[in-house]
Amino acid sequence: MKGMDMKSDGKDMHGMQMNHGSMNMGGMNMSPGSMEMDMGGGHMMNMGNFKRRFWISLILAIPILLLSPFMGIVLPFQITFPGSNWVVMILSTILFFYGGEPFFSGAKGELKSHAPAMMTLITMGISVAYLYSLYSFVIKTFINPQAHVMDFFWELASLIVIMLLGHWIEMSAVMNAGNALQKMAALLPDSAHLVTAEGQTKDVPVGQLQKEQIVVVQPGEKIPTDGVVVSGASDVNEALVTGEAKAVAKNKGSKVIGGSVNGDGSLRVQVTATSSDGYLSQVINLVQQAQKEKSKAETLANKVARWLFYAALSIGILALVVWTIISGLSVGLQRMVTVLVIACPHALGLAVPLVIARSTSIAAQNGLLIRNRQAIEEVNKLDYVFMDKTGTLTQGVFQLNDLVSTSDLPKTDLLNLFADVQANSSHPLAVGVVNEAKKQGLTIDPATDMQAIQGVGVTGTVNGKFYQIVSAKYLDQHQIAYDHDQFAKLAGAGNSISYLVQDDNVLGLTAQGDVLRPESKRLISQLQRMHIKPVMLTGDNDLSAKRVAHELGDIEYHAELLPADKEKVVAKTEAAGNHVMMVGDGINDAPSLSRANIGVAIGAGTDVAIDSADVVLVRSDPEDIINFLNLAKATNRKMVENLWWGAGYNIIAMPLAAGILAPIGIILSPAVGAIIMSLSTVIVAVNALTLHLKKED
């Protein structure tokens, strides 16, 4: 995993250091002393440094909050003593430069890119509060102790601490995902049985394994690393890794995933992945990419902050000019500062992070891993949900319903050939044939040079002869003769038909039936109630697809599609102005998952699923699609509400603070403005905590 040592309870994994919750995730460190986050304008902040900066800033802020007034209000808990003003000034200066440094750097990046946003607004607020407070300190300490020049040290301290807290909350949401990954990493055993050059075996730490080395996996043991079986046969339980509950047959040439549990057979596995190539590494990269993504809601927050920055600056300067003309520079300066300080985004800085953190936690508890937060925004615009048939709407467990020989081959030999050619394939159709052959006690000799052809089938060599297992569509395209009436009869009964071909001659066929998931009908009806159109996409034959579509309520479907064809269907629908979600297993559906506005992978068992999907349904339950849609809609609603609470009060507060209603005797005092500002912060926090996932009855 990116060349790092991972240790948890003494475990060393792939050279990745993990000590009791410490994880370095690719280019993003994730641990109490590691993970980095973009603070705005491309400025990266280290998690450990950030956490330390928050706590030190809080320690500095506490005496400031106790010793200084709140926008002129003497609070009940305020303490004063001779020289306390010096303590406040010194601590505030340290806090301003130390705690404010991330915001200064972020603002520099935003201004450099000509896009002032949250960091710039925060920097303006704390800079104005500090400089004017320093001016007040000088006036009252050295020039005129009786002068009524208000300081804003209290506001400076509270704003810095709250803004640091908001960013820490967002980082903590990432840390929660990291903790889940640590649990996945714990699936790996401490050591592996390495086969030495002399043919002996010795136990070595998993982190010392290198590519091309051979390890022995005994019955019942966890597979220590990703690899390929070089000898032996067994059924491997990949449920803890991929979410698939059923055991998967593994023979020579089969790929295995580190962390899965071996069955009753003994396997020799050649290591194919160490540091950055393994399955768990792909999951880590997924989380890394997820946290780098900026959702439209966050962009909206920055747009709101940009609007506040320009509005506060404009209104403040206008107030300075007008009040200077009317009442002198001192009054004009105080009015401008009041406007700028009231515009400080205490609540705005917490608006989105609090909701994201709450949403991330709820998603994790309900088996949802959201890779790209922008997918949340797209939910409100959704028109279509395209779903792969096999493994998504159906269980993906195929039973052999019929075996037909169209040559002089006995059925037993025909089944044996089907099993030999598909022995190393993980496709559900292949697994069904291999399981039937084992059930009949046949000896399986895996084909050599086996190759999978996406959307078509597999090829391989058995006893020096080259065989193909293909679909009827392939036979039509290559003008290979077969019994069309027989195909129509078997396919019409809901079977998937596969043909064994040698030298352009059909030797026989298998008819296999899949079983509809019990929850699929409920999923379809729920989508329709949400006014989202469900569409089934499949590479299976039209007759089989039609039967499944009918069972689901005669929904729209497209059959006999290659992976590229599915992608074209998605692209065409989007080109017509629609927003599309694609749901699939992440293997043959990878192009369409990537193309869709929202790509959802059922289960996380392959690198392709991880790389292609925006959302992963960890429990492989299609009904979790509805949970995701409901959670996304609730999250969107809360983010918009919080943005209004976080910034809406400024629409009234800033003009009043500038004195727009002064002619009729109404001027918003700093104290009242501060109370409104504090109230909005509390409302934002409470509102975020009320986010919950409402599940369908």
UniProtKB/TrEMBL annotation:
It is an enzyme of class 7 (translocase). It catalyses: Cu(+)(in) + ATP + H2O = Cu(+)(out) + ADP + phosphate + H(+). The chain crosses the membrane at residues 86-104, 116-132, 152-169, 307-330, 336-356, 643-668, 674-693. The keyword Ion transport applies. PROSITE patterns: ATPASE_E1_E2. Keywords: ATP-binding, Cell membrane, Copper, Copper transport, Ion transport, Magnesium, Membrane, Metal-binding, Nucleotide-binding, Phosphoprotein, Translocase, Transmembrane, Transmembrane helix, Transport. Residues 187-288 form the P-type ATPase A domain. It is a multi-pass membrane protein. Its EC number is 7.2.2.8. It comes from the Bacteria. It is found in: Cell membrane. Belongs to the cation transport ATPase (P-type) (TC 3.A.3) family. Type IB subfamily. This is P-type Cu(+) transporter.
